[in-house]
Amino acid sequence: MRIERAKVDNFGKLNQREFRFGPGINVIYGENEGGKSTLHAFFRGMFYGLPRMRGRAARNDAYSRYEPWENPGQYGGRLWLECGGKTFRLNRDFRKDKTAAELVCETDGELLCVEDGDLSVLLGGASEVLYDNTVSVGQLRGITDQNLAQELRNFMAGYENGQDAGLNLDRAREKLRRQRREVLSGIEEERQRREEGLKRQEEKIREHQLRMEQLEMEWKSQKKAFSDARNLSKPEKTTVGAKKARSMAAVLAVWMLLFILGIWQGVPFGGLLLWTVMGAGLLAAFFWVRRREEKLRESELQIQSEQELRRQKIQWKAEELWERMQEEQKLLENLRTEYEQSRREAAAVSPEQVEADALELAEQTLVRLGDQMQGKISRRLQERISEIFSELTDGKYRRVSLDETMKLGVHTEERYVPADRLSRGTLEQIYFSLRMAANEVLCAEEPLPLILDEVFAMYDDRRLASCLRWLADCGRQVLICTCQDREERLLKRLGIPYQKVKLVGSSKESLGNL
């Protein structure tokens, strides 16, 4: 992609300015406070917008920093971009109440949609983090931040074997983790539900066991009462009454015999009368004893009937208790069977657990494959960084080491030197090499323009000349913002063609091809 033209309606200190840029190297010259960083920020705002922060953060955000003081009703501009042999026009209005973006292909008149990702396609899918850490280098930003390390890891995980280079490793892992957390949450809820169900079943079993024990105690008590009722003896009075009746009958029989003998022997009348009175008394006593015996027998029969009825009631109660015990026993057995089945189901591996294990395995596989891909791409990235850095240092440093945290080190012919022991100029050369190598790897489909804002302040002329030669051969559009003439002087001396754009003077663009 190449920036052909930029028209700034109103952005920071730039007002109604138009700039044209050519292929290859463009030197954008302006004195300090001349608007170089403003133009740099304008490019970024056009590509990614200027979202307004909230609260205290809104005081120092990019929107507030570049909001025009004069004529704030115009806050935006236009870019003309060449991509794939076609020209596109990008319009943006940054005003917070009328934020709008329009993308038009001027070659065929097609109206594209920024919100649907058409602009992202032109940018090769480069995110803001990638843009800030590769092709766009601001003042005092020669060293990358740690976000580039994550961008590289995400890219490395999906770059090889035709996979989507935009795959975000952390996003994919987080999606798997989120799904697994949701599944595990459901498993935990189901586990708690099952545990509560088991507790209720255990309480129900204990309740029925207690009821069973009570029924058994009552049944045993009724059984003992029935046994005691069967062993009851007849009343003692009935036996005594029968003996008395037999004795009285024997005495009466003896009296009768003596009375008959007295009459036969001619006993006097007085004696007979006495015997008669005695006989009447004996007879009355006999009948009284007999009557008493009948009453006692009636009482005994009544008692026996009551005892029999009591025994029957006890027996019926015992039989009822036995039936209830049998029913309770069956119910208890069913409850125990259901409880054991519930325990087996709780102990069994559920489909949800299988799914959770599968998600965990998928995450582990993703990490393992990501590490393998990172190793492959990391080696290629290190090789490209080493090649660029070797060119920039005229072969003084042969190889650069880079770990997953973006910690750098260099190798000479004799020793390894950590990056933090190098001079500021050499360190910036290493990070410049890292930016350029990462840009080649991450933006291979659509090379983006390199926008360098005062990044060569720590370079001596030898280093700067090596860097300019590399930029001239990289095949990309390069925009170098500077307040000095060193870049232009060295470009002339090296015979490298370039175009010069001045930020001061006429509102018309300044275009030179020297």
TrEMBL record:
<feature type="coiled-coil region">
    <location>
        <begin position="169"/>
        <end position="225"/>
    </location>
</feature>
<keyword id="KW-0175">Coiled coil</keyword>
<feature type="coiled-coil region">
    <location>
        <begin position="289"/>
        <end position="345"/>
    </location>
</feature>
<protein>
    <recommendedName>
        <fullName>YhaN AAA domain-containing protein</fullName>
    </recommendedName>
</protein>
<feature type="transmembrane region" description="Helical">
    <location>
        <begin position="247"/>
        <end position="266"/>
    </location>
</feature>
<keyword id="KW-0812">Transmembrane</keyword>
<keyword id="KW-1133">Transmembrane helix</keyword>
<keyword id="KW-0472">Membrane</keyword>
<dbReference type="InterPro" id="IPR027417">
    <property type="entry name" value="P-loop_NTPase"/>
</dbReference>
<dbReference type="InterPro" id="IPR038734">
    <property type="entry name" value="YhaN_AAA"/>
</dbReference>
<dbReference type="Pfam" id="PF13514">
    <property type="entry name" value="AAA_27"/>
</dbReference>
<feature type="transmembrane region" description="Helical">
    <location>
        <begin position="272"/>
        <end position="289"/>
    </location>
</feature>
<feature type="domain" description="YhaN AAA">
    <location>
        <begin position="1"/>
        <end position="54"/>
    </location>
</feature>
